[in-house]
Design a protein that fits this description.
The protein has 17 helices and 29 strands. By secondary structure, it is of the alpha+beta class. A hairpin with a 6-residue loop joins strand 26 and strand 27. Helix 6 packs across helix 13, helix 7 runs antiparallel to helix 8 and helix 10 packs across helix 11. The protein is elongated.
């Protein structure tokens, strides 16, 4: 393929470079430019050209210099794991080599690319891990493009944020204590097969990327999904199995080879023992997977960094000696949140003054280091008081629930509302009823393309900074708000009626006070608010947060209805929602390893006891929920409609249905299943909208009277009036007069005037009307059966049917 001049130039270049590289040549017969090549001939020609290009490119590379660095071998190092009956493949070393750690994880044809990176300098002081996890599902993974105006993925979707939280929670406790460098884990779903859910192994991929990196990460962490299909647990069910009617559970379990770190599940009234069985099955699989990942990471991973932030020697012991005794006295007597915080601040100031004076001989101490030492002392004292005395900082016993008060309908113009208070945690919940147009719609790579689908029930959680007496950011919901709202929504979803309930239900929970478990307060308040809105719930549900204090020697206590302080200083936050006997949602985050199935069984039994108490207190709501539609709630009607008549209802370009909606204020939906749904702001508007829909679908009954209809056109032979959107009728000139003969219609009516008319005939789809007949009827003159509409037609009663002789005016008879 090389021309003569090209060969000469290459030979000259080779001579200058001193490289004796032979120049391969390949002669390809050229076809005349007008000759049409067959497919085989075209493929042969293309192959020949490509073969010719390869050696030529090799020659040029070699000629460029023999001293060029060799390309590093980028073959991926693989780890093949058996997860249930599916295969999970982890690969590293080929993609993302400049990141601290990178993993390409695949299950089936679903693939997640994960990177872990950390800055060099410390961004914190060791009090927390500055970790950020960002997970994103790309439309291109499923061969799709976003349907929005902007096609590029931008702001994370709510579902992506929820998965990011799901990944963050189990891996955060596994960083080496004192790691303070800003760390970022990024995940992209690059391929999606519609069978294997990516979030199922996103936790495993994130932990593996940290484990093979130089970031100090203690152990492998793995996650699995567990379903409950046909009465038994199933590991990593397919998307179809997960969404199938026989599945009652959606559970994500994450942990290490030794212990469970996180569970999050939503179910349709499973028992405690069924849930524990599902957790145990998932934990067994996780343990096996983690052992294999750690062995693989030991071969392919990097040496770990050790630039950790630690407290000055002796600081914790010195602070403990200063504050332990007064803290024990404080935690052993009943105090409120504000009083307790004020006394803790005074003790902290005392320790700060002593440290700053130099009497303790510790040296320079930053305020953050002192706060960490004070927090450690507070945690030790509090845990000892609870373990030894069985007494909590607000004076309650281990199983006691804080006082509960609920009041329905505090907001009179809402469809349903409740103020729910439990101790120092309070939620103002509002339920709003709407049509299908109000459903929560989302667009993801998993969408099947159906339009109009969405969640018919959803809960939105708001946590303003004022609920804890602080100043902070407001606006779009943060990750915590999305996570708490999702938990409360999934806890209530199983009790919200679906097919038999025509409304879309939206619940808003605004936290007005917070000192422990505001998400579970949202479950209780949301349940009562829906009852106040008249939603026929299948059964009431309640939620409770459980805590745990676990010592290294195995001694432990389980706490019911924990406070914010008990959550911060304890070892477990276990939220459980359900009815009196079964579960609808549960979420557990564990800060230490060592939680056994027996401890979880104890916590679940204690939570069931607490839920029963809370449900009893909710039943005392005063005033109680109205259990009926509010006068301010919209009214809805569902009726079957003949598919052949949908065109008449919709009208040309949707003109008729839009006009009905504008006149009545109603929302109208025509479903593919042959049902029409009409939602209107009042019963009167609903009836008016339904009448207009029926009029657009069918001609009006003979004898029906319309009052105050508008004249839309005047012709020499009569006037056309609008009976309703999509339905006009003609008042012939002979029927226009109210007392005598009319020769010209324009002499008695004008466009825009209104008149009363009666239906005379509907032959050929054309409606004939009479003004004269109504005038006679109003004067008390007999007009026969035409004064009343026909029975069974358009919701009217008594009238004539086709073929009857009807008196329509003085001396006139019409068939």
């Amino acid at each position: 393929l090389l021309s003569a001049s090209g060969s000469q130039r290459l030979a000259a270049h080779r001579q200058r470079a001193g490289a004796a590289v032979p120049v391969p040549t390949l002669t390809v017969p050229r076809a005349p430019h007008h000759q049409i090549l067959t497919n085989d001939a075209a493929n042969s020609l293309t192959s020949a050209v490509n073969l010719a290009r390869l050696p030529r490119a090799a020659a040029l590379v070699a000629a460029a210099g023999a001293n060029s660095p060799a390309i590093e071998n980028t073959r991926a190092k693989r780890c093949v794991l058996q997860v249930g009956d599916k295969e999970l493949i982890l690969e590293t070393g080929e993609i993302g080599r400049q990141a601290n750690g990178a993993i390409m994880a695949s299950m089936g044809e679903t693939m997640i690319y994960t990177t872990a990176c950390a800055n060099q300098g410390s961004a914190g002081d060791g009090s927390f891990v500055p970790l950020t996890v960002n997970y994103q599902e790309r439309f291109s993974a499923a061969g799709k493009t976003s349907g929005g105006y902007i096609k590029r993925e931008g702001r994370p979707k709510d579902a992506d944020v929820l998965t990011s939280r799901l990944v963050d929670r189990p891996i955060r406790p596994m960083f080496t204590k004192g790691w303070a460098c800003e760390t970022q884990v990024l995940q992209w779903v690059m391929s999606y097969d519609g069978v294997h859910a990516p979030e199922t192994f996103a936790i495993t991929a994130a932990a593996a990327s940290l484990l093979v990196s130089d970031i100090p990460f203690e152990k492998a962490v793995s996650g699995v999904r567990v379903g409950w299909i046909d009465g038994k647990p199933v590991i990593n069910p397919t998307e179809a199995q997960q969404a199938g009617p026989s599945n009652k559970l959606d559970l994500i379990v994450a942990g290490t080879r030794d212990a469970v770190l996180m569970i999050e599940g939503f179910c349709s009234f499973l028992t405690d023992e069924e849930m524990l069985e599902a957790v145990a099955v998932g934990a067994d699989v996780i343990s096996s997977v983690c052992l294999q990942i750690e062995a693989w990471a030991a071969e392919v991973g990097k040496p770990k960094k050790r630039n950790l932030v630690k407290l000055p020697d002796g600081l914790e012991a010195a602070v403990f000696d200063i504050v332990a005794a007064p803290l024990k006295e404080l935690y052993s007597r009943t105090t409120g949140k504000e009083e307790r915080a004020a006394q803790e601040s005074a003790l902290y100031k005392q320790a700060q003054d002593l440290v700053a004076s130099g009497e303790l001989g510790i040296g320079d101490v930053t305020p953050i280091q002192l706060q960490l030492a004070f927090k450690a002392a507070s945690s030790t004292v509090l845990r000892n008081v609870v373990l030894t005395e069985g007494r909590r900082i607000d004076g309650r016993g281990l199983r006691d629930i804080r006082p509960i008060y609920a009041r329905a309908n505090p907001l009179p113009r809402t469809h349903g509302s409740v103020l729910f208070t439990r101790g120092e945690t309070q939620a103002l919940c509002v339920a709003t009823l709407g049509s299908k147009a109000d459903a929560q719609r989302t667009e993801t790579m998993r969408d099947d393309g159906e339009k109009g689908s969405g969640d018919s029930f959803y809960l939105q959680y708001h946590f303003p900074p004022s609920s804890v007496g602080e100043v902070g950011r407001t606006g779009a919901p943060g990750r915590r708000e999305l996570g708490h709202g999702e938990l409360a929504q999934r806890a209530l979803t199983p009790v919200v009626p679906k097919d038999e309930w025509p409304y879309v239900v939206r619940v808003e929970s605004t936290i007005t006070e917070s000192n422990g478990s505001s998400s579970m307060a949202s479950v209780c308040g949301g349940c009562l608010a829906m009852l106040d809105a008249g939603v026929p719930l299948l059964r009431p549900v309640a939620g409770i947060a459980m805590g745990l204090i676990l010592e290294p020697d195995g001694s432990h206590v389980v706490l019911s209805d924990i406070l914010g302080t008990e959550d911060a200083l304890g070892d477990m936050d276990f939220k459980v929602a359900g009815d009196a006997d079964t579960l609808t949602a549960f979420q557990m985050d564990i800060k230490v390893e060592g939680i056994t199935v027996d401890i979880m069984r104890t916590a679940l039994a204690q939570a069931r006891e607490g839920r029963r108490h809370i449900l009893g207190e909710m039943a005392k709501c005063s005033p109680p929920p109205r259990m009926a539609l509010s006068p301010h709630a919209p009214r809805m009607m569902r009726r079957p409609v003949d598919p052949n008549k949908k065109g008449g209802i919709i009208g040309s370009g949707g003109k008729t249905i839009r006009a009905i909606c504008e006149v009545t204020g109603a929302d109208i939906n025509l479903n593919d299943d042959g049902m029409i749904e009409i939602m209107a702001p009042s019963q009167e508007a609903l009836e008016k909208a339904m009448d207009m829909v029926e009029l657009a679908a069918d001609p009006p009954a003979i004898g029906r009277v319309f009052r105050g209809v508008k004249v839309v056109s005047v012709q020499a032979f009569g006037a056309f009036v609008e009976l309703g959107p999509g339905r006009d009728g003609l008042v012939h000139v002979s029927e226009l007069g109210t007392g005598g003969f009319v020769a010209d219609a324009s002499a008695v009516v004008k466009v825009g005037e209104v008149m009363d008319v009666m239906v005379l005939d509907n032959r050929g789809g054309k409606t004939s009307l009479s003004r004269k007949a109504v005038a006679a009827m109003d004067r008390g003159e007999p007009v026969g059966a035409a004064a009343a509409p026909a029975a069974g037609s358009n919701g009217t009663e008594g009238g004539a049917s086709d073929g009857d002789v009807v008196e329509v005016g003085a001396g006139q008879r019409r068939t």
